[in-house]
Design goal:
Layout: H1 10-20, H2 25-35, H3 38-55, H4 60-67, H5 71-83, H6 87-99, H7 108-114
Helix pairs in contact: 3-4, 3-5
């Protein structure tokens, strides 16, 4: 079964290629600071945290209090977490592995220099 993203588009392809070229957190901050408004970045970060808390089985009210998200946002994130494309689950799993030391940091600059 092949996955066909709803957002597939040549411009989105270039955006994701650019993101994948970022080598560390500082470069991400620099790029996203230029690309997005503060509100857009905070909204994305909030959704990821909502997904993490949903996966940890926190209640809607607890999540709303902890993140400032509306119940509508929590509900939407839950819908995508449970029956979306699997992106939230993939990233949350990798973040957990990274924090446990199972995955190396995403700094690809050193790997690029070794090749």
């Amino acid at each position: 079964m092949s996955f066909e993203p709803r957002i597939k588009d040549p411009l989105v392809d270039r955006l994701f290629e650019a993101i994948l070229l970022l080598r560390n957190q500082e470069e991400c901050y620099r790029f996203f600071d230029d690309l997005c408004t503060v509100g857009e970045i905070k909204a994305l970060a909030q959704r990821l945290e909502v997904a993490r808390l949903l996966q940890a089985r926190r209640t809607y009210m607890n999540i709303c209090r902890m993140t400032g998200a509306s119940t509508a946002t929590v509900s939407r994130v839950k819908r995508f977490l449970n029956s979306g494309s699997g992106g939230y689950k993939l990233v949350l799993q990798r973040l957990a592995e990274y924090r446990r030391g199972v995955l190396p940091p995403a700094d690809r600059g050193e790997a690029d220099e070794q090749q």
